[in-house]
Specification:
The chain is an all-alpha fold and 146 residues long. The chain has eight helices and no strands. It folds into two domains: 76 residues; 54 residues. α4 packs antiparallel against α5 and α6 packs across α8.
């Protein structure tokens, strides 16, 4: 359901259907105690609400996804969740919070990169989506040095 929500959003579809899918995914993930589903469902919900013009609702959903990370939930690719929050916070005018989330996202990327022993694979990881996009954005807005 999360993947479908993101796919609809990526295509530019009306945000009502992706929002419905995301909210449903969050509920199912909570019921099943599936951290990844809940966190990514909240990220999809944030983007759907944002696309629908509900900036406050988007921010609440993005904040909830980061709160789950901060509570120690085991989640794949926390840098993506932090980046989602940064984008929503930035759009809501909360530049300081966006800056902090970007710095955290970059720190997660660097931590992952350090675990990759092979230089070639590490270079590919850092050049690929989403790592390259997050680092580029963070550099552009001054969250990390050039």
């Amino acid at each position: 359901m999360v993947y479908l929500a993101f796919a609809h959003l990526e295509r530019g579809d009306d945000p009502a259907r992706p929002l419905e899918l995301a909210v449903g995914a969050v509920q199912l993930a909570r019921d099943g105690e599936i951290a990844n589903g809940e966190v990514y469902g909240l990220a999809a919900e944030a983007f759907a609400r944002f696309r629908g013009g509900d900036v406050n609702g988007a921010r609440r959903a993005a904040e909830a996804s980061v709160a789950l990370l901060d509570a120690g939930r085991d989640v794949d690719s926390p840098e993506e969740i932090l980046y989602t929050f940064a984008l929503i916070a930035e759009a809501a005018g909360a530049r300081s919070e966006a800056h902090d989330a970007l710095m955290r996202a970059v720190a997660e990327i660097r931590k992952k990169a350090r675990r990759i022993r092979d230089e070639g694979w590490r270079t590919r990881y850092l050049a690929a989506h989403p790592a390259a996009m997050i680092i580029s954005h963070a550099t552009e807005v001054g969250a990390v040095p050039r």
